[in-house]
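re: ur question from yesterday

yeah so i grabbed the chain u mentioned. its 467 aa long if i counted rite. heres the sequnce exactly as i have it in my notes:
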Amino acid sequence: MTTEPIATQGASASADASNRSYREVTDTRGRVYRIGESDRDILGHSRKFMVYLPWIAMMAISVFEYAYGSAEDTLSHAHGWTQSNTFWILSVWVFFQAGIAFPAGWLRERGILTARRAMYVGAVMCVIGFLALSHLSNVLLAILGFGVIGGLGSGLVYATCINMVGKWFPERRGARTGFVNGGFAYGSLPFIFIFNYAFDTGNYHRVLDLIGCYVMIVVLSCAFFFKDPPKNWWPADIDPLTYGGNSKTSAALAKNPPAVKQYTPKEAIRTGVLPLMWITLVMTAGVSIFGISFQVDFAKEVGFGPLVAASSMGIMAVINGIGRAVVGWLSDTWGRKLTLVFVIVVLGLAQFGVIWAGNIKSEWLFLFFAFLSGFGGGAFYPMFAALTPDYFGENYNATNYGLVYSGKLISGLFGGGLGSMVVAAWGYNGAYALAGGISMLAAAIALLLKQPGREGEVLTPQPQPAG
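ran it thru and got these structure tokens back, copy pasting raw so excuse formatting
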């Protein structure tokens, strides 16, 4: 990248610089970076807290999606619901969990909804969701309580946590975003086993009520410390023009260079890249949600015992979460797009592997492909979360990522509800084969992704001037 000397923005900015601890610099493309302030200057402590606190909150809300499949049988017996009823409750939850990301981002970026307030509101809505699932037998009321209100609440928490990390770590966001995103999967592990072994029609009220209170308390506690950095903020120890500073960070920036400008949502859409990301996420998330919704039931139909069924889902949840952290770190080395394509291909291959393991009735192979499915089925989320600010900048990331993540709206419909119809019509083998094919097509589309304004440009870290 061609660089220019660091300079403050205009005469007024220069005159004002003596009265503040930061200054604004531009690169040759006109992108502004706010430098000079450390994380401790702004927060009073290390920005690492803006990794650990979102991670803890994400673990708390993971019970909504990743443990729900293990609770479906008991809920069906307790409330008199059909299998289709329980699948549609989850599908509505997915719809609203993903759908709130864009409007919440729009409100945050206009100062109407702070990160802390979004978390507070989300926490209260989450406990309402679990109380509804516990006490409402009418399926429409359960859909309203758990699917709509619980979905909106968990979506507010999810979107706020993911965007928080992207804003505080603009120079090497892959590993941090993956770590936080991972909590949304393996945080559900204790609840998967609770729902499989200690959850029945005699105690379901108490269990669901306690889980709802647990989610609310954890999210409220984390939210108290949430704070966004100023717009255009950049870490004081990394030169945004030359990438000089820490060698690992410089190498990561060379593979995943900052966006050439801060794109508004309309500008991001006009590039054509954001719609392509949306389509890729729709297809990949649909396959992932399908696996989460049907793996336990498929294992039981094949004839595997409850331990294998529960373990396969537990493995999926753990590897799903760990995989997110691993590929986040890997993307800082390989580059985000290459890592994303790799993950989607693994997800597709795993769907065909599950069919094979079921046909030959091999428990260990089933667990192995559950491992691969869990890895691929979660690891693509942090890649999209990191690619969005990489391509379009941090200032409008809450809204831009909200647009990309809204693809999960459609995914929830064909991954859960429509997935149950495909299973009924084609059987599990046909449904899993279709899912594998969709994943491979998504990987081909992901190959077309390019950073707007920098296509074909090769970047290398440049040494800082002496002195």
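noticed a couple things. The chain is about 70% helix and 0% strand. also The chain has a mean pLDDT of 84.
anyway ttyl
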